[in-house]
Amino acid sequence: MSAEALAGALAALGVRAGVEARDGFALISAAPDAFADEALRAKVVALAAEHGFRSVALEVGEPEGDSAPGDAALHRR
Amino acid sequence: MKETDEMPADAPLAAALRKEEALVRWLRAQPSVMIGFSGGVDSAYLGVVAVHALGPERVLAVIGRSASYPAEQWATARGVAERFGLPVLEVDTDEMSDPRYAANPSNRCYFCKTELWSRLLPVAAERGIAVVLDGTNADDLGDWRPGSQAGREHGIRSPLAEHGITKAEIRLLSRERGIPTWSQPSSPCLSSRLRYGLRVTAERLRQVEEAEGALRALGVRGDLRVRHHDDLARVELARDELARWMRGEALRALAAAVRAAGFARVSVDLRGFRSGSLNVLGDVVAGRAE
């Protein structure tokens, strides 16, 4: 499982996201609006699986301005 | 269930009814039965069939109550029992005091079911009840079910599984009998929400129960799990619910409800609900004891 590699793959997909490896799944931090699209969710799920994660979850931040949690790209293991 | 040109529309029901007839014959051959009764789809069906087959004098449903047993399910269990005339007894279980259970290993259910049957079997013996049953169904046999080992060790019978009755058939047959649990989502204990290795505590179970209750109150439908990953909640929604909740105000309201239950961080699983997802994440394989 590579959080950094997945973050790179998401960026190539047009999704700017921080990725944290947690308990076998990828926890991603990104602006949530785009994830209302089912096709995008499916692509992100597939990418996460390709990078060794058994699932992927989108963190939903507190409603403070427009920033998502960990808005800067993060590659934490 | 899909209709095909070769199969009459009522074929699945006819097949299920034949299995039920065999189940009823088996039940009637028992002098009396006790049922480990959670009020879930399987044990509700078994309890109703048993009381219809044997009469209330020969059937006793026993609810094992503990911090891991959701209050909502308890209410369902009592409601089904009352509606169908199923005699019920409640017994407190204390699996939380077993450090092997509280450590939350992947075979946690083994210790939980050991505690349950250890409490119920003496009650059965005192009352002269011949056999103790659980609601394991035929589909469960291929799943990771360490609790089943405890059942075997205590001589518990699983007549639904033994007669090949699947979950889908149980729902179908429940609907035929007017049992309201026929369409109920599956409802495992609250401990199943905690990732393996995360200690089971009353506080964590409360957080999960409160978060799921809040999401139901918001209007979340279908299968729902709030998985506990210590500081983080990972919410699993049914696929069609994901489409409803992954947008704007709805998503913010969902997260706020879970946060209010005490989670510092909230996330939504983009795959949606997956039964046994903690087994997948923890690389637990069916049949392998740990």
**Secondary structure tally: strands of chain A:** 4
Judged by helices, strands and strand pairing, the structural class of chain A is alpha/beta
Span from first to last CA of chain A? 9 Å
Share of helical residues of chain A = 25-40%
Count of alpha/pi helices of chain B: 12
Q: Sheet bearing the most strands of chain B, described?
A: 4 strands, parallel
Share of β-strand residues of chain A: 15-25%
Strand content of chain B: 5-15%
Instruction: Note poorly predicted spans of chain B.
Output: 1-8, 286-290
Strand order of the largest sheet of chain A: 3-2-1-4
- Cα separation of the termini of chain B: 37 Å
The secondary-structure element order of chain A is HEEHEE
Helix-strand makeup class of chain B: alpha/beta
How would you explain this protein's 3D organization?
- Helix content of chain A is 30%, strand content 22%.
- Chain A is an alpha/beta fold.
- Chain A is globular, with a radius of gyration of 11 Å.
- The C terminus of chain A is likely disordered.
- By secondary structure, chain B is of the alpha/beta class.
- Helix content of chain B is 46%, strand content 12%.
- Chain B starts with 10 loop residues before the first helix and ends in a 9-residue tail after the last helix.
- The interface between A and B is medium-sized, with 25 and 28 residues.
